[in-house]
Specification:
This protein is α+β, with helices and mostly antiparallel strands and 695 residues long. It has 20 helices and 34 strands. The chain binds 2-acetamido-2-deoxy-beta-D-glucopyranose (5 copies). Keywords: Signal.
Length: 695
């Protein structure tokens, strides 16, 4: 069984500088040494998914650059084909050439004669546009081709005309060779073994190896496979959000991950991540950068913005609202509470970005936030004075998809968790108003909750036994957001995790609500065998559109996000620890709350540790297995042909590394994790069982 798990679900192996991760559908190889860092993705078309294609892709953090060879699954004679590409073990190596060209070489095998279309090269964003949306940028295509008897080279000159990338495929076959057909852009690749080489001239980032990333007290983590994988995303320049889609800086991901990883990070790593935030801040107004666009796509954006003179100068976007509120609480936790941050604030804040010190920039960020907080602090009588996402944006917090907030404008996490916790360190007079008054705007008394739950189960074709009418129902739920007119988006959600993580004085009622929300689905968010859902629209009785908007297939629907589970787990731990202080919160004296909280924490711990995806993957969803009457895990691509492909490594999913096993819970299971058995897995399982029987 162990073998099956390793092989078919998340197989992880480590050899020198190479990590292999294989989430359900495809293989990812993470390579890093002192010359280069690269992620190789090899996937095979999945009949259930349009997003998983047969392709060979290499993505580099340097300039967020990459190359993609997409295989054509139709032969020139119209017949289908389904080739299998496999990386040759031990073949990946870095390469450095003249004129600052660096990159990756390696080998793969092809089991049958195949065809690739014109490679997409340059920015990972260009690769994504093509892979996710089929968008081809005519101005970003390889223009140089060099055919030799046994090789084909593609040369792409970046839009800045200074950078270029070469992608070469060569074979040692003696009979059949790769053949490029210029009119169609197709290359015939005969079955066999290929050497590939991808080089380009953008300087590599400076790696933070795992022993520099993790603080010295936690040497036990240096051999931990997840810590090593996390290190692929950490550099002295910045932390990367995830691979292969997001091998670049994202403010929220960096800030939240650093906050949650604080207990295990070294000073050097923490300050690298925080420095990257300052370096990308809007130095005029203190806004924090959401996403940086670098490399070829920066040139593209600058040209689109009619500023070609900027060349490949990074483009920073400031469209998010939540990110602005996350810097100061992180600085406070690090410099005031962590041994690693002790006595380091002065030196850190003296660092400079241009002509300004970090201290000066921080003051701008503080003033920005105080400006946002003032209206409601002055007049808390109306929701309209709460903090809204930006006027021209459908998104503004971590639920960063157009329907993520259910068309709300005033997000719960910002208004109920972030603003008040920010004010704790700056303006306690404002804080009191926010703490006392903001939450009530999000209170919803569910209408006909029992009926609503029953109908919701019916709509999802789930057995009515999952909810018994004699069960109690919550008297109040907390809305996910408020719409422009102040009406609540009636969706139960996991953003209570932000309060648990960032607040010190939550009320007894709040803690009771946390317990309510952590009850089993559909009443609450906890789905046995799968995880804690980020959204549950079951109580929206009046307007059941949200039952579709927040479906299990939606990116921010009724699915699980790893970092949310970990944040909730660590948040509860943090709250329980407050009970040992002299100035403990009131609820600490309520034994039923404390013991229920410990129980909920153990349940969460169990569901997390039973799922091998929980410490690495970004998000997953579920299905209900009628035969076993159990919920089972499904990857997004297994559920929807349109689902966005999930990253195999995601910075904030690794925060689980910093979570402690809660005291008094059953220990981590050592048996095979409970997993959703997909048809493919089942088929392979049968084969393996048959094989075991015979051998
Ligand atoms: C794949 O190859 C077939 C046959 O040569 C061709 O008709 C088709 O356009 C190709 N598909 C793509 C997406 O290039
Ligand atoms: C290579 O990189 C170094 C360091 O950035 C730079 O000084 C040098 O000019 C570069 N050489 C070329 C040929 O671009
Ligand atoms: C890249 O390809 C171009 C055009 O084929 C060639 O002139 C150049 O030498 C190649 N550079 C590297 C580093 O392979
Ligand atoms: C489970 O049973 C329900 C009806 O009881 C049905 O609608 C649903 O499609 C079944 N699910 C699967 C995966 O077969
Ligand atoms: C239900 O909610 C959706 C999404 O917020 C909205 O577009 C629609 O107008 C609402 N319907 C009613 C009847 O309120």
């Amino acid at each position: 069984m162990r073998l099956i798990y390793l092989f078919f679900f998340v197989s992880l192996s480590f050899a020198d500088d190479l990590l292999k991760l294989s989430p359900a559908d495809y293989d990812n190889f993470l390579f890093r040494d002192d010359k280069t860092a690269a992620q190789v993705v090899i996937s095979k078309a999945n009949p259930n998914s349009a997003t998983i294609q047969t392709r060979f892709l290499v993505a580099f953090p340097a300039g967020n650059s990459g190359a993609l060879a997409m295989f054509n699954l139709t032969k020139p004679n119209g017949n289908p084909l389904n080739p299998v590409i496999q990386l040759v073990d031990g073949s990946l190596k870095s390469i450095a050439k003249d004129n600052n060209f660096t990159g990756l070489i390696g080998q793969f095998t092809l089991d049958q004669d195949s065809y690739i279309m014109m490679p997409v090269m340059g920015s990972v964003r260009t690769l994504r546009d093509f892979s996710e949306a089929g968008v081809k940028h005519d101005e970003m295509v390889p223009t140089g081709f060099q055919q030799t008897p046994n090789s084909i080279s593609f040369n792409y000159i970046f839009l800045d005309k200074e950078t270029s990338m070469n992608f070469t495929l060569s074979t040692t076959n003696t009979d059949k060779f790769p053949l490029f057909d210029s009119p169609t852009g197709r290359t015939d690749l005969p079955a066999g073994t290929f050497d590939f080489e991808i080089t380009f001239n953008i300087a590599s980032l400076n790696p933070l190896p795992v022993d520099k990333l993790i603080r010295s007290e936690r040497k036990d983590l240096l051999t931990n496979i997840n810590a090593k994988t996390l290190a692929f995303l950490t550099y002295k320049d910045k932390f990367l959000a995830g691979g292969w889609h997001f091998l670049t800086y994202f403010g929220r991901d960096s800030l939240i991950s650093t906050r949650l990883l604080l207990p295990i990070l070294s000073s050097e790593a923490t300050e690298a991540a925080m420095g990257a935030v300052f370096d990308r801040m809007n130095s005029e107004n203190g806004e924090l950068c959401h996403e940086e666009t670098i490399g070829d796509y920066a040139t593209y954006i600058n040209q689109q913005n009619k500023q070609p003179q900027l060349g490949s100068t990074p483009f920073y976007d400031y469209k998010m609202m939540d990110t602005n509120f996350q810097l100061l609480p992180l600085l406070a936790s690090y410099f005031l509470d962590e041994t690693t941050g002790k006595d380091r604030a002065t030196a850190f804040l003296a660092n400079q970005k241009g002509s300004q010190t970090y201290q000066m920039l921080l003051e701008k960020n503080v003033n920005l936030v105080l400006g946002h907080a003032k209206k409601f602090a002055d007049d808390p009588s109306t929701f309209a004075n709460l903090v809204q996402i930006k006027q021209d944006q459908p998104v503004g917090n971590w639920r960063d998809s157009d329907t993520g907030l259910g068309y709300g404008r005033f997000p719960y996490d910002i208004n109920v968790a972030m603003v008040p916790s920010y004010l704790e360190t700056t303006a306690s007079n404002y804080r009191k108003v926010w703490e006392d008054k903001a939450l009530q705007f999000f209170f919803v008394k569910p209408k006909q909750p029992k009926d609503s739950l029953a109908k919701y189960l019916e709509k999802l074709s789930l057995p009515s036994t999952l909810y018994s009418v004699v069960d109690d129902v919550p008297a109040t739920i907390h809305a996910l957001s408020l719409k422009a007119d102040g009406s609540p988006v009636v969706v139960m959600h996991s953003d209570i995790s932000f309060n648990l993580m960032y607040h010190n004085a939550l009320t007894t009622d709040y803690m009771r609500y946390v317990l309510d929300a952590m009850k089993p689905f559909p009443r609450g968010l906890m789905m046995d065998g799968v995880g804690l859902l980020i959204a549950n629209p079951a109580y929206d009785y009046d307007n059941q559109t949200n039952w579709d908007t927040f479906s299990r297939k939606a990116y921010h629907g009724s699915c699980v996000w790893a970092f949310q589970q970990s944040m909730l787990l660590m948040g509860i731990d943090r709250q329980l620890n407050l009970c040992s202080l002299d100035t403990k919160p009131d609820w600490c004296n309520d034994q039923s709350v404390v013991s229920s909280l410990k129980l909920a924490q153990c349940n969460l711990w169990t569901v997390i540790t039973q799922n091998p995806l929980a410490g690495t993957e970004e998000t997953w969803s579920w299905d209900y297995d009628n035969d076993s009457s159990k919920f089972v895990i499904k990857t997004p691509s297994e559920l929807s042909s349109k689902a966005m492909e999930s990253d195999a490594v995601q910075l904030w999913s690794f925060v689980l590394l910093a979570a402690n096993q809660p005291a008094g819970c059953p220990s981590t299971p050592t048996t095979t994790p409970k997993l959703g058995v997909t048809h493919l897995n089942l088929f392979v399982l049968c084969l393996v069982l048959i094989a075991e029987f015979f051998f």
